[in-house]
Amino acid sequence: MAKLEWEESWSVGNDTLDKEHMSLIIIINRVLAGEGPMEMVLRDLADYANNHFNREEGLMQSANYEELDAHKHEHHMFVEWVNEITTTLSRAPEARHLLGDTIHEYLQKWLKEHILNIDMAYKGKL
Question: For residue 84, what pLDDT band results from cuts at 50, 70 and 90?
Answer without folding.
Answer: very high
